Amino acid sequence: MKLSVVMPVYNERHTIRDILSQVRAVDLEKEIVCVDDFSTDGTWEILQEEAKNGTRVLRHSQNMGKGAAVRTGLERVEGDVVIIQDADLEYDPQDYHALLDPIRSGQAKVVYGSRFLGSRRDMAGLHSFGNQLVTATTNLLFGVALTDMETCYKVFTADVAGKIRLTSPRWGFDPEITARILKLGHRIHEVPINYRGREHSAGKKLSWKDGFTVMFTLLRCRLSD
Asked: 24: domain range?
């Protein structure tokens, strides 16, 4: 089983080398597909160097958003299973094995890594509340019982990836991909993961205002095809 790691990247020059090193260190057959969303801080130059180590690097000609970067990556994957990996250091790639186990055993085709089932450190109270609110809204609209819809660690088989139609270019990506998966009839299996949050001063880009985008996207996807 070959794993495709799709990594959307925007202005992460302080962490990109470390996260790529951590991903490479995981003992799995894999490819790493980095999509640079028109970084302006030197990240792209670092990625060009990392390409010499076998990382596949792509770049948008303008900043289009995380959702657009993920979509670009999904269009290029060659593995049997896909995982989304943020370019910061909040998530631990050593959790890949636990995330893949339900797929290997045939329990599920889609697995999410839940921060609320595992070890969660340094998550701001407002961030935690916002995550629980949008997850509860997802559960209400789609009749499921998720604990962490907004998690970065979304894992699915290549055949599922090929059927997901994504249109949200920015922070609507998480609710849209979740809604599309659920409307395809797939159950989302959750496993505990390790998480260590960072503050906006350290480069975190999500803000409370993005919660409105998430809520609107959930409603749009629930009411549309």
From this structure: 3-223
